[in-house]
Amino acid sequence: MQFLNFRQGLQQGLAVGDGKTFTGLLASDAGYPGSLQSLVKQGPDAFAKAAEALRKGAAIDLAKIDYLPPFDNPGRIFCIGLNYVDHSVESGFEIPTYPAIFSRFNDSMMGHGAPIIRPKVSTQLDYEGELVAVIGKPGRYISKEKALEHVAGYSIFNDASIRDYQRKSAQWTIGKNFDDTGAFGPFFVTSDELPPGATGLKIQTRLNGAVVQDASTSSLIFDVATLVHLLSEAVCLQPGDVIVTGTPSGVGVARKPQLFMKHGDVCEVEIEGLGILSNLVADEQ
Fold this sequence. Notes:
Elements: E1 2-8, E2 11-17, E3 22-26, H1 36-39, H2 45-54, E4 58-59, E5 66-67, E6 77-81, H3 85-90, E7 100-103, E8 109-110, E9 116-118, E10 125-126, E11 129-135, H4 144-147, E12 151-159, E13 161-162, H5 163-166, E14 182-190, E15 202-207, E16 210-216, H6 224-234, E17 242-244, E18 266-271, E19 275-283
Parallel strand pairs: 6-17, 8-14, 9-19
Antiparallel strand pairs: 1-2, 1-5, 1-14, 2-3, 3-4, 6-7, 10-13, 11-12, 11-17, 12-14, 15-16, 15-18, 18-19
């Protein structure tokens, strides 16, 4: 099932579809099943029931809505750094034996079609196309063998980073959390629609139509099951927690000459089976 979280006018809505056509309901409509954030806490059957209700709704004109992040208020956003071998090498790091983990804040995110904002204080706004896994079942000390049972589905993230601020500190948090730099969407696709662990999917980032990142999710150093297992050693994972799994090589800061996003650019991240996340870049006003 493929879900779209959106706003039409002042109302939030939810729709189900195939990536091109969607039917759905607004929050004020009879039968509205609730947000994805609420559904994921009810267990996997809730998605099927919601899809049934949404298919009875009206056709959604995608040109007349604002896309919202599929999960616009997740409990936790775990981001993984250096999770592709080539990206670790281009960044000047040794291949990790344990994942680099940092957090994003909810307020840094926006949906498909919204502008990624280049802040006044930096011109080093970089792109990072990434696969997202969303937790659907709570658990602590989850085994790798059982880990994918805890994943509800997948989406796309552009972990746009302010590189000079990222490197001002020993911790990456500030460079990864500028307002309006974390694009998330456009859709949420349930796990049953994809290969186990979303492995083997083509992931590509394009800047103004030119391919800048091109890889496969099978090249993750720490795959989705491993990430779920390792994170659950530290915390009890909860439904709606988001894991942003890391970016492949080709980032702008590692290029010669360096390539950073600027006002008027369009950045697209496409992952096979998950759609295309597209955002315009705009200077902060």
